[in-house]
UniProtKB/TrEMBL annotation:
Pfam family, one: DUF1285_N
UniProt protein name: Proteophosphoglycan
Taxonomic source organism: Sphingobium quisquiliarum P25
Superkingdom, taxonomy of origin: Bacteria
Domain DUF1285: 25-92, 93-182
Length: 186
């Protein structure tokens, strides 16, 4: 697999082009019988483990992430045309680790780089939501097929600073024509 792109060197036009060119395996079309447990786990911090040991090869993690699917019951599986293996996901399978913003207000566009190197442009098909918990807000970005990325704390602070500068009520931010409340009100 080729290395992930450097978000800071790309314009949002470049990001949109890369997203349009990206082809993922059609995991939603594959329905083999469940074959067992992958003995893999994705920790809350985005680290992938196999049999209790971290997977150190980034290319392997990126490859596995392309065959990850969320089942209707909320569980996660790694799926190919011939096998389906369960995988434990502690929170969200991805982590949004970098943000790129262009424009202001309703004309703003946001793009995120995930810990797997994938790029996601927030908007109507990739909404941002905030879940309030006892330990504070947990922001998420929809990636694909029910899979989400937990927005890292530093990226969430960056989003909040942009939102506070614009002064929207409720506190939130626009991206690609959609408004996302960041105070947990949506």
């Amino acid at each position: 697999m080729e290395p992930p792109p450097d978000l800071s060197s790309l314009s949002l036009t470049d990001i949109a082009r890369l997203l349009a060119e990206k082809r993922l395996p059609p995991v939603e079309q594959w329905n083999p019988d469940h074959c067992g447990d992958s003995e893999m786990r994705i920790a809350r911090d985005g680290t992938w483990f196999h049999q209790g040991s971290p997977i150190g090869r980034e290319a392997m993690v990126r490859l596995f992430s392309t065959i990850l699917r969320r089942e209707p019951d909320g569980s996660h599986v790694l799926v190919t045309p011939v096998e389906k293996l369960s995988i434990e996901v502690e929170d969200a399978p991805f982590l949004a680790v970098e943000l790129k913003s262009e424009g202001e207000g309703g004309a703003r566009a946001l793009a995120f780089r995930l810990n797997t190197g994938d790029l996601v442009a927030a908007g109507p098909e990739h909404p941002i939501r905030v879940r309030e918990t006892a330990d504070g807000p947990h922001p998420y970005l929809h990636v694909r097929g029910g899979l989400e990325a937990l927005v890292s704390r530093s990226v969430y602070y960056e989003l909040m600073n942009l939102a506070l500068e614009e002064g929207a009520d409720p506190v939130g931010i626009w991206s690609n024509g959609a408004f996302f409340a960041l105070d947990g009100s949506q």
